[in-house]
Structure formats: C-alpha cells, structure tokens
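ZP: hey, is the magnesium ion complex queued? I don't see it on the tracker
AM: it wasn't, my bad. submitting now with these inputs:
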Amino acid sequence: MKKIGILGSTGSIGTQTLEVVRNNGDIQVAALAAGSNIGLLERQIREFHPRLAAVMDEERARELAVRVRDTGTEVIGGMDGMLALAALEEMEILVTAVVGMIGIRPTMEAIRAGKDIALANKETLVTAGHLIMPLAKEHGVSILPVDSEHSAVFQCLHGEDPRTFSRILLTASGGPFRGYDRERLADVTLEDTLKHPNWVMGQKITVDSATLVNKGLEVMEACWLFGADLDQIQVVVQPQSVIHSMVEFEDGAVMAQMGTPDMKLPIQYALYYPERRFLPGERLDLFALGSISFEAPDMETFEGLSMAMEAARIGGSMPTVFNAANEWAVRRFLKGEIRFLDIYEAIRSAMDRHHAKEDPALDEILEIEADTDRWLESRC
Ligand code: NDP
Ligand code: MG
C-alpha cells in the first residue's frame, strides 16, 4: 500500500485525489490538511481514517479535534500542523494541493523528510524553485507534476533522453475571454471570470486562467521542473483543451499528450508513476471533436502572461513579487473589491517598485511577500 498525505484535501485537486484513492483501493491516506473547511475534512477523516489532520485556522482546528475525538485521528492547527503533516513518518508521497505560496514551508519540510512530492501547488515552485529543486536532488526525492500541462510534458518525456528535447509547447485554453480586447476586459465581471470554458477548478486558478497569469506561472513551473530555458518554452493557445502540452525533440519530432480534460489522469499518473492504470471516464472522440485549432496568445491584452515572462527573465525575487501581487489582487477581486484590469495594475506597480534580489533565501521570500502585501494594501 502506498501511503500519501494531501495538503489541501478539501479543494478541487484534493477531492479529486481522494476520488483516485477511492477508485483504486490500494492507497492509504496517512494525513489530510485543509485551510478552514472542517465540515468536509471531518467527512474525509471518517472515510479515510488518516493518522493526522491539520487545519490552518487554529480555532477551527480545536473545533475539529472535539468533533473527531471518537476517531484515531490527531488534529494539529496552524503552520505547525502543516509542518507535522509534511514530516509524518509513514507518509511516502505528499500531494501539494494548497493554493498559494503558503505551500513553500511544508513542501520544503516534506522534501527534507525524504517524501516524494506530487506537485499541484505551482505558486510554491514559481517563488522558491531555486531552493526546492536542489533540495529535492540533495534528498533524492522526486517532484512529480500534477498540473495537466506539466504532466503532459512529463508523459511525453517518459523513456526519452531529457537532454534531447528542444522545446516545450505549453498549451493554453485562452480562458473565458479569449479574443477580447482591453476595452471589453475592462467591463468583465467576477461571474464571467469564474466561467472557465473547459475546466472546473478552485476560484483562484480560475481567475488566473482568465488573466493568463496561470499560464505565466506555468511557464516558470516548466522551467524548474524540466530544466528548460525560458526561450525553450512556447505558449500555444489550443481552445478545446484536448492537447495538454507537447514536447519537440532535437530531430523535429513533436510528441503530444491528449485526452479529455480530467485532472484525475495527471493526479493518478503522479501517484502511480511509472505505472499507468485504468481510469474510468470519458474517452477522446476525435470524430465528435472534428478539429483542433491553434493560435498565438495575445500577450499585449493579456498582460498576465507578458509580465510573468518579464518576471521570469529578471529572476531572483521578481517571480515572488509577481506571484504575491497576483495573490493579493485575486483575493480582492474575488471579494468584489477591485476590477479585472486592476489585477494587472497591481502586479505591474508591485514589480516596478521592486529591485530583484538574486537567490533569495526562504525568509527573504516570505518577507518580500509580506512587504508586497503591505504596500498594495497601503495604496487602497
Ligand atoms: P482550491 O481553492 O479548490 O483548494 C485549495 C485547498 O487549499 C483547500 O483544501 C483549502 O482549504 C486549502 N487552503 C486554502 N488556503 C489555505 C491556507 N492558508 N492554509 C492551508 N490550506 C489552505 O484550489 P485548487 O485545488 O483549484 O488548486 C490547488 C493548487 O493546485 C493551486 O496551486 C492551483 O494552481 C493548482 N492546480 C489546480 C488545478 C485544478 O484543476 N484545480 C489544476 C492545476 C493546478 P479550505 O477548503 O479549508 O479552504
Ligand atoms: Mg495547468
């Protein structure tokens, strides 16, 4: 039995991971963690019997401890809970499915404890990839991609000499506002933004998909995961979300991983790698689909992607500022406090005031995040 832990078990990736566990029946869930949704977490504890549950919100953690005292599950609150979960002895793989760079410390803790990481939490790699990738190498742990594009690249590279890839063709749906100009974007609502054409996901990544910030984060994620240079990554808009990404090799061959949009495939692939297992669900029907189309991304209108490329090119602490400003702005956008284009403005102004520091240490990354938050808050 494989033993896993899930950081963010109550979210979109977390619940789909538990579906994969349920379908297969040979994975043991050693630990679960959530932010504050103890109602769902309690149901998960009663179904999967983890040894440990962590809840970021301390008050909710105390409440949950009372509610599940008839089970054998220990509950720990706050960051201490996340770190205890990360280092839990019997756990072999940690699925990082929390949203945001809050995942950095537990991810690093898990690597130090020798756990393989099934990584969905891209914000962590974008801001601390220079710490995480060498740490993983040092401790001999694998970072297995869960993000669909990166899983596709990983699948295309399987059995190949990774030194022979020349480019990664990272596909993007283009989001709900593909084809819009800036004028139209100025008027979009939160409700419009939350309607992703092909995927049902958590709210933050759904907004990021509409701004193309998500694709920008994914470009940086791909650089870290596959040791690619920025210039080796081309973003290709493929509106049907059927090609999950492609790899071009030295000889010109292009390998693509295709399928219906279903996150359970990359989740299951990461959990059982290198084994491929049956996965119930719809299969790709090429005749019903008819055609697959491609476009270049509109980087001028969708500044989320162009600013991410700029942050990646500058490097050092700039991706942290890009990400922290976006997390701040998306939080406010989700509360209805700012408009769609204000997200771009917040990122632009935070990046403009920052002088990037090379190779920031963990405490510097966290301080830069806090400073970006404080500064954006002070302007309101
Ligand atoms: P959700 O918002 O659906 O879930 C987030 C999870 O993180 C929940 O379990 C939530 O707990 C928990 N959480 C939120 N804030 C905190 C906090 N401060 N401390 C601890 N836990 C917290 O997100 P998704 O599942 O959509 O995304 C998770 C990650 O995976 C993101 O980084 C995203 O970019 C990435 N990803 C997601 C995809 C998808 O299809 N959803 C696809 C590819 C990547 P609670 O429920 O209690 O709030
Ligand atoms: Mg993705």
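AM: back. The chain has a mean pLDDT of 97.
ZP: great, adding it to the tracker
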